[in-house]
Amino acid sequence: MASNDYYRTLGVPRNAGPDEIKTAYRKLAMKYHPDRNQGNKEAESTFKEINEAYEVLSTPEKRQVYDQYGAEGLKAGAGGRGGFGGFQGADLGDMFGDLFENLFTQGQGGGGRGRPRSRRGADLKYEAEITLEEAFSGVKVPVNFDRTELCEECDGTGARGRTGIKKCPTCHGAGRVQYSQGFFAFSQACPDCGGQGEVISSPCKACNGAGRQKKRATINVKIPAGVEEGSVLRVSGGGDAGLKGGDSGDLYIQVGLKHHPHFERQGRDLVYDAQVQVWQAALGGETDVPVIEGGRVKIRIPAGTQHGKVFRVHDQGMPSPGGKGRGDLLVKVKLEVPHDLSPRQRELFEELAKLAGHEAPSQDGDKDKGFFKKILG
Q1: Which of 72, 82, 66, 77 is nearest to 21 (CA)?
Q2: Quick check: is 1 in a domain?
Q3: Dihedral sign, Cα of residue 52, residue 57, residue 62, residue 63
Q4: In this structure, are 169 and 281 located in the same domain?
Q5: Which tens digits make up the pLDDT trace of 12-46?
Q6: Confidence of residue 289 (pLDDT cuts 50, 70, 90)
Q7: 142 and 213 share a domain?
Q8: Are residues 224 and 143 in the same domain?
Q9: In the prediction, which pLDDT does 182 show?
Q10: Best-predicted range by mean pLDDT among 66-75, 172-181, 238-247, 367-376?
């Protein structure tokens, strides 16, 4: 996990809502909780990163500062209201915007002034549903989705040639405008150029000056063997294109598993309900059951096996996502009671019932005869 990117730490896109963030946090916190990973220092460190990320992204004020200035902005105290002597009338994130801008762009050519500001593209989320067999062996899934890509006509500038871009007359290319409030001077993004420092005087005809266009994209995503339901895979750079040379966002693939007619998954183990005849459970014997990679294996049914008994077949479950070992196949006995007995079969069951001290009920025909006999005297 990346400790400096809270969205990647929780495995959610940057436009994720509060409920999505909370769900992702709970799932990861349960997986890496120290009580479930005793002695595992790596899990303990990951657990701390998860909590740090959730603390920031679940708090609207902290998340706003983080989105604007990153983790360093939080450490420096950006965006706090009511701090620094209790000034509550102004947003300190804006008042000290120039300070952070100079800190984070130092050494990159002019401290950011007079240059178009890059902006990272948005993250995208897609759900891919696969079969249990595909989850067992791993599979490449073609993902078809819409995303924003750079306009090929203007190469993302949004202008019709370089002459179609002019310096913003309001901020004179700085991207920010200065304001004074009492004894304090602060700045904010230029309202006319949106902080870019430039305005488009002659927009590109293909994208109408946006610099980007919606297009249909296809990416083949490799889903590893042993992947679990709800797992999220990240394709770096697979999201929307950035602005003004900014990095593309990421594509997040959430994996879903289709219902299987025979197996139920429990972690790395697979559960199979085996239909066993009553006499087979009483006398013992063998039965064969399917396995996930195809074919069947035989298991022994001891005499006196009860309904619900579970037999474990080692190393016949799902592989570990890390490639170390496999789970087991859990065979659960379901006793199958015979119906539509032949006369001889019923006779044998009645005899068995008498031996057990149980009086077998009469057949429907016998019941009717006894009823009419009583009425007729």
Answers
A1: 66
A2: no
A3: positive
A4: no
A5: 998 888 889 998 988 898 888 887 888 888 888 89
A6: very high
A7: yes
A8: yes
A9: 58
A10: 238-247
Long-range contacts of 11-14 (CB under 8 A, 24+ apart): 11/232, 11/234, 11/252, 12/57, 12/232, 12/252, 13/122, 13/123, 13/124, 13/125, 13/239, 13/249, 13/250, 13/252, 14/67, 14/122, 14/123, 14/249
pLDDT at 313: 96
Specify the number of domains making up the chain: 4
Window from 2-16, 49-63, 122-136 with minimum mean pLDDT: 2-16
End-to-end C-alpha distance for the chain, whole angstroms: 87
Radius of gyration for the chain, computed over Cα atoms and rounded to the nearest angstrom: 34
Does 292 lie in the same domain as 175? no
For 215-261, the pLDDT digits (tens) are: 999 999 999 999 999 999 999 999 999 887 889 999 999 999 999 99
Residue 348 included in any domain = yes
CA distances from 264 to 95, 149, 258 (A): 57, 41, 11
Q: How far is CA 324 from the centre of its chain?
A: 23
Q: Give the structural domain span for 328.
A: 263-336
3-state class (DSSP) for residue 130: strand
**Residues 133 and 152 placed together within one structural domain of the fold:** yes
C-alpha closest to that of 248 among 150, 127, 141, 101: 150
Question: What is the C-alpha to C-alpha distance for residues 366 and 344, in angstroms, rounded to an integer?
Answer: 17
Q: Are residues 275 and 317 in the same domain?
A: yes
Question: Does any domain span residue 282?
Answer: yes
The number of helices, as runs of H, and strands, as runs of E, in the chain is 11, 15
The SS3 call for residue 318 is coil
Q: Among 104, 100, 105, which Cα is nearest to 79's?
A: 100
Backbone angles phi, psi at 187, to 5 degrees: -135, 165
Tell me the average pLDDT of the chain.
81
Asked whether residue 4 is domain-assigned, the answer is no
Closest CA to 100 of 176, 26, 21: 176
At 81 the pLDDT is 39
The answer to whether 226 and 136 are in contact (CB under 8 A) is yes
